[in-house]
Amino acid sequence: MSLGVVAREAASVPSTSGRVALAEMLGRAAPVLSSAFSRSYASLVGSGFPSPRPDVALHLSTPHGGHINRMINTAESILELDGILYRFRKRLRPANIGAASMKLEHLHRYERASPYALKVQRVAAELQKYVETFADRLALTQVANVVRGMSSVSHRLPPELLVRLAAGVVADGGAALRYAPDVDLRDLCYGFSGQGYANPLFWSRVSSAVLPRLPSLDPNTLPAIIEALQHTQQLPIPTSTPTSSSEAAPAAASPQLALARDALRLLASPASLERLQPARLADAAHLLRRLGPQLGLMQQPGGGPDPALLAALQAATLRCLPALAPGPLTGILSSLLGLHGLAAGQQQQPQLPAELLVAAEAHLRAAVPRMELLHVKQAVQVLAPSAGGAGAVALGPLLELLARRAVQLLPAAGEEGAAGAGGSSLARLPRGGKDAGAVLAAAVGPQMSAMTPGVLEGLMKAYAAAAATAGGVQGGAGLVALVERVVA
Predict the structure, then answer these.
(1) Please, which of 26, 296, 387, 415 could form a disulfide with 472 given CB 3.0 to 4.6 Å?
(2) How deeply is 214 buried, as exposed, middle or buried, from its count of CB atoms within 10 A (0-12, 13-18, 19+)?
(3) CA separation (Å) from 231 to 72, 189, 226, 373?
């Protein structure tokens, strides 16, 4: 029965029937009115935007503040997120704090704002107040969201607050860690390592809880776990000749070391390499090059990697080349060159396979306009050993293009002179990072100190190695300009 039919029947009721007939009509209309209201509420909830009326918004919300989460997740700027937090400052719940922390990380990367910008740190400081209020009530997922969000914007939480959050994570023997999703474990390790929390007892309990379920984890989460253990110095790497058995026993029995070794071994399996995302594949290659020999994963007699592992890693690299950004692209090629160096030993200079070099050349050429100074140095170091080989004719223009990119990244000549003869800082840091800035600051004077390691010095050494190779780089205009800028 529709509302129109009910209205017409109510209007046709004779006056002699009185209130009884009217009550019967309204009783028959009640289901129609109820269904109409339910449809309107359902459409309002399904739209994702709550009603502007506070009473309706609270009626549609969950006990955890679902309507606030919807507004947080639809915020399009950090300033809008700040306004939402201020508007609902008296109604925020633990679920809202975790959602706001993750949204802050997303907006910070989307806007490409400096993590030290005032608007970023202001929202992070506001979230810290709510974290201190709800620290004992946060679930593991919410703790992971908070520490990841704060670490991504370089906001350090107080040590006493980190202790409270860590105690909630490992409570009840780490029961929550045994059933936590893979992404929560990844965010947890990344967040606490980014906060510099290096409590051995905490990481020992985390490792003990994660180790039994390691084979079931997504391989893309393993690099973050290993890097967190390394960053917090939780890997007591045993030396080849320990001084005593008592010193080697704690290292061998460490849950952190066992977790890192098993995770890296699982990461190096062909099945895991096929499932890795391009950026995570670059992280895996870097970890294999840096930690593989120390964790005893190199199976060759001379300490080199297994040829099957090199073949699988090279095949995975060829598959992911089109999707790699400039940083991961040069990083994975540099790691592969280091692994080939371990396999070759001291007998000969390591080189990348010809098929990999030919496939990567086009991608390196396309990535040159987006490279930073550190990426240029890594690319030249990868190409230098092969500059005199069969591909020297093809590598010469690429090395010349990299030299021109390095010249573009160096500060202008006027800015170099503005610092003075004894200047220790530049007016504008290059886009190669703080290490490149420190090296260029030392190079402001008449000549660069030979004892100063850094990006620029490594770049020039790589070009010198390429030029010294038989049939190597022909000094083009870009390389000449780069040399003149450095030694001038």
Answers:
(1) 387
(2) middle
(3) 32, 10, 9, 24
Q: Is 446 helix (H, G, I), strand (E, B) or coil?
A: coil
> pLDDT tens for residues 256-272?
999 999 999 999 999 99
- For 116, counting Cβ atoms within 10 Å of its Cβ (0-12 exposed, 13-18 middle, 19+ buried), the class is exposed
Vertex 154 angle, CA 436 and 132, to 5° = 165
132 vs 97: CA distance, rounded Å: 11
For the whole model, what pTM was predicted?
A: 0.73
Query: How far, in Å, CA of 127 to CA of 197, rounded?
Result: 19
Triad 413, 418, 419: Cα angle to 5°: 110
Question: HSE-up of 157 (CA within 13 Å, CB side)?
Answer: 31
Model confidence pLDDT, tens digit, residues 228-238: 999 999 886 65
Is residue 351 within 8 Å of 315, Cβ to Cβ? no
Q: Residue 396 is which amino acid? A: G
Give the closest residue to 334 by CA, choosing from 373, 382, 376. Answer: 382
**Total Cβ atoms within 10 A of residue 259:** 25
CB 433 within 8 A of CB 372: yes
